[in-house]
Amino acid sequence: MSELETAMVMIMDVFDRYACTEGNKTTLTKGEMKTLVEKELPGIFSKVAAKEKDASDKLLKDLDENGDCEVDFQEFAIFVVALCTIGHARFANVPPKK
């Protein structure tokens, strides 16, 4: 597989691993989403959590487009793309490591 195909499979795998721990196997509950961001995005989430007491509640509410109190894969994918977009913009002017 190409690097992009591998990255896509890895994103799907991460979602599925956390979604299958509680309730509906195709969505992330509040607890599953909190665990996912704490374990998979510690550098990002720890900074947000330090600033906001209930950061995981706010994140779930912001991601939950259809209002079912869970995050489905489409909502999760939008979150991942948003993080990639922010990261790309932030590091666009950083010279590459040698």
From TrEMBL:
Tagged with keyword Repeat: yes
GO molecular function: calcium ion binding; calcium-dependent protein binding; transition metal ion binding
Domain annotation EF-hand: ranges: 51-86
GO biological process entries: endothelial cell migration
Keyword list, A-Z: Calcium, Metal-binding, Repeat
CDD domains: S-100 (cd00213)
TM region(s), chain numbering: none
Pfam family, one: S_100
InterPro entries named among the record's database cross-references: EF-hand-dom_pair, EF_hand_dom, S-100_dom, S100/CaBP7/8-like_CS, S100_Ca-bd_sub
GO cellular component: cytoplasm; extracellular exosome
Protein known as: S100-P
Organism in which the protein naturally occurs: Pelobates cultripes
Taxonomy of the source species: Eukaryota, Metazoa, Chordata, Craniata, Vertebrata
